[in-house]
């Protein structure tokens, strides 16, 4: 009877019918309710499961669309493909800072045998230099596929794209000016040099002040309490309008010498709080120096 019960279990597993029904049909012998037969199986048993290693999902492809991103800037697209004998596998994207797991993003059950692309934004990820890995149970990379990718993520970027010169003390924060002190920092650069948003946000002011700032733009940063002002922009170069939302790195205009200016430069201000509306200017130089280290 034991032999009959095992045969019944084989048949049940093969036909995907309940074991109890098959058992009943052969006289009511008991058999395990689920799982493969244990113990005593002979070579060639039809229900023997393949070795787990032969069924492990394979990471066939993995890549990142860019190596550097910024908060509120263009997202990184993570592309990957997993091949397996099952239709879906639960997938997680893991972000390591050094050897520390800094963030996990669950993608749920992902269909196998197809390429998937997920976009991730800088503001949703940890800052700094990260290692990105695709994780799934027992997943191993194919011989020619990358197992991980490098991604650098920063909160701000330098506001100029191109050559520039730091100004001397006269262009620094707090320098004396007729009737007031200098509330920003002057970056010397050629007329036409691109001025970009150091942080995504909303453009709050686009204006012209002939005797002072010239053409200028004010930006309120997203997800923080800072405003940024960009002054003396080249005539006709301003590419944004009031109320427009911009991403980190969006071109705002070009370096010029409009208004009260002795030569082409970007007068750049950072305010904690609202620009000219309750906030207070802070020295931009420490931030500019830091942003420059990762913006090139
Ligand atoms: Zn200035």
- How much helix, percentage-wise, in residues? 10-25%
**Number of beta-strand segments:** 22
Low-pLDDT stretches are 1-45
Strand content: 35-45%
Distance between the termini: 78 Å
Write out the distinct hetero groups bound to the structure. Answer: zinc ion
- What's the helix count? 4
Largest sheet: 8 strands, antiparallel
Q: What's the rounded overall pLDDT mean? A: 86
Given the C-alpha coordinates, what overall shape results? elongated
Radius of gyration: 31 Å
Question: What key phrases describe this protein's structure?
Answer:
single chain, 296 residues, mainly beta, eight-stranded antiparallel sheet, five-stranded mixed sheet, 4 helices, 12% helix, elongated, disordered N terminus, binds zinc ion
Describe the protein.
It contains 4 helices and 22 strands. The chain is mostly beta strands and 296 residues long. The longest helix has 14 residues, at 2-15. Helix 1 (2-15) crosses helix 2. A hairpin with a 2-residue loop joins strand 4 (88-97) and strand 5. The structure holds zinc ion (ZN). Zinc ion binds at residues 182, 184, 186, 267.
List the topology elements.
Layout: H1 2-15, H2 19-25, H3 52-55, E1 58-64, E2 68-70, E3 76-83, E4 88-97, E5 100-111, E6 115-120, E7 128-135, E8 140-141, E9 148-154, E10 160-161, E11 165-166, E12 176-177, E13 180-181, E14 185-188, E15 194-196, E16 201-209, E17 214-221, E18 226-233, E19 245-246, E20 251-254, E21 265-272, E22 280-282, H4 285-295
Parallel strand pairs: 1-8, 2-9
Antiparallel strand pairs: 1-3, 3-6, 4-5, 4-7, 7-9, 10-15, 11-14, 12-13, 14-21, 15-20, 16-17, 16-19, 17-18, 18-21, 21-22
The structure holds zinc ion.
Zinc ion binds at residues 182, 184, 186, 267.
């Amino acid at each position: 009877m034991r032999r009959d019960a095992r045969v019944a279990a084989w048949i049940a597993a093969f036909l995907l019918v309940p074991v109890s029904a098959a058992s009943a049909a052969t006289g009511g012998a008991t058999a395990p309710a689920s799982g493969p037969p244990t113990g005593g199986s002979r070579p060639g048993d039809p229900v023997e499961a393949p070795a787990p290693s032969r069924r492990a999902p394979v990471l066939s492809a993995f890549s990142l669309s860019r190596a550097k991103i910024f908060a509120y800037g263009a997202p990184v697209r993570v592309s990957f493909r997993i091949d397996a004998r099952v239709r879906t596998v639960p997938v997680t994207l893991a972000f390591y800072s050094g050897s520390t797991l800094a963030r996990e993003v669950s993608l749920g059950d992902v269909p196998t045998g197809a390429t998937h692309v997920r976009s991730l934004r800088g503001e949703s990820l940890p800052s700094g230099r990260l290692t990105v890995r695709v994780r799934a149970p027992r997943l191993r990379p194919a011989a020619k596929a990358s197992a991980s990718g490098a991604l650098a993520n920063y909160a701000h970027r330098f506001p100029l794209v191109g050559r520039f010169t730091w100004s001397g003390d006269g262009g620094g924060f707090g320098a004396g000016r007729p009737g007031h002190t200098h509330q920003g920092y002057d970056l010397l650069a050629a007329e036409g040099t691109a001025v970009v948003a150091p942080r995504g946000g909303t453009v709050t002011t686009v204006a012209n002040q002939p005797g002072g700032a010239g053409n200028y733009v004010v930006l309120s940063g997203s997800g923080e309490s800072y405003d940024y002002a960009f002054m003396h922009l080249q005539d006709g170069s301003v590419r944004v309008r009031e109320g427009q939302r911009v991403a980190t790195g969006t071109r705002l205009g070009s370096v010029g010498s409009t208004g009260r200016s002795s030569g082409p430069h970007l007068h750049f201000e950072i305010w904690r709080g609202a620009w000219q509306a309750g906030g207070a200017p802070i020295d931009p130089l420490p931030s500019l120096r830091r942003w420059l280290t990762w913006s090139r």
